[in-house]
Amino acid sequence: MSCSIIYEDVSFTYPNGTDALHQVNLTLRHGEHVALLGPNGAGKSTIMLLSNGILKPNQGRIVVGDLTLTADTLKPIRQRVGLVFQDPDDQLFMTTVHDDIAFGPLNRGLSAGEVEQRVADALEAVSLTHLSAKAPHDLSFGQKKRIALATVLAMQPDFLILDEPSSNLDPRGRRQMMELIRSIPSTVLIATHDLDMAWELLPRTIIIDGGQVVADGPTRELLADEVLMISHGLELPAVVKYS
Ligand SMILES: Nc1ncnc2c1ncn2[C@@H]1O[C@H](COP(=O)(O)OP(=O)(O)O)[C@@H](O)[C@H]1O
Ligand SMILES: [Mg+2]
């Protein structure tokens, strides 16, 4: 199904008064793979949490496909927008990997057969079928990150949002995560500090700083722009710096 996400003039202030986002306008079109870059505290995670209604904008609106995000559309929108948190321990809470992945599809009321198919497909997508019976807390960090992604893939979202998918992974884990992201056909938005991953995988980049969008364009143009990058607390990716 075709699915775009539109943020229209979205502002958000946390209850303690922190202004996190200020009049953000963004359109993510169907099938795009997009990097969301910005220094710590820029508002990346806030944008993600707004996208499926975990947080509610103080101003503006968010439109997913043909639905405007409101209390009434929360449920269908959460079925379309899958969020993978930075810390896999925020996503995994069952006693086995299998049950963690089955949890969402079961809650959606799918048949037992369909649930098992979803679990099998999601495990295959992350190449971790052999860990199905394991306890999530016994896995390596990199395995946990991929299982956390599998729990979301099993919901077959049209739109996938990943917060720092490559952070704290060793080189092999990072490479596996990158190949996995590359294979995802849905629309993908990735908040990351991994500029080389953005360069390699994500054709479009949005840079936010201080809760505002400061650049939006082709990744390889933006990331090679030293003045732009430095002025927003970023650096050049290694592929540019050492070429
Ligand atoms: N739960 C919260 N309560 C209050 N302020 C928060 C909370 N989460 C984030 N913030 C603040 O909102 C701003 C944006 O944060 P965040 O979206 O987490 O940025 P990023 O993910 O880009 O590092 C920062 O000033 C941060 O300190
Ligand atoms: Mg964050």
Brief digest:
By secondary structure, the chain is of the alpha/beta class. It is 35% helix and 24% strand. The strands form two sheets. The chain has a six-stranded mixed β-sheet, with helices on both faces.
Descriptive overview:
The structure is a single chain. The chain is α/β, with parallel strands linked by helices and 243 residues long. The chain has one domain (5-241): 3-Layer(aba) Sandwich (Rossmann fold), CATH 3.40.50.300. 35% of the residues lie in helices and 24% in strands. It has 10 helices and 10 strands. The protein has helices spanning 44-51, 74-80, 97-107, 112-125, 141-153, 171-182, 195-201, 219-222, 226-231, 238-241; strands spanning 5-13, 19-28, 33-37, 59-64, 67-68, 81-84, 159-163, 187-191, 204-209, 212-218. The strands form 2 sheets. The protein has a 6-stranded mixed beta sheet, with helices on both faces. Strands 2-1-4-5 form a 4-stranded antiparallel beta sheet, covered by helices on one side. Strand 1 and strand 2 (19-28) form a beta hairpin. The longest helix has 14 residues, at 112-125. The chain is globular, with a radius of gyration of 18 Å. The mean pLDDT is 95. The structure holds adenosine-5'-diphosphate and magnesium ion. Adenosine-5'-diphosphate is lined by residues 14, 16, 18, 20, 38, 40-46. Adenosine-5'-diphosphate binds next to helix 1.
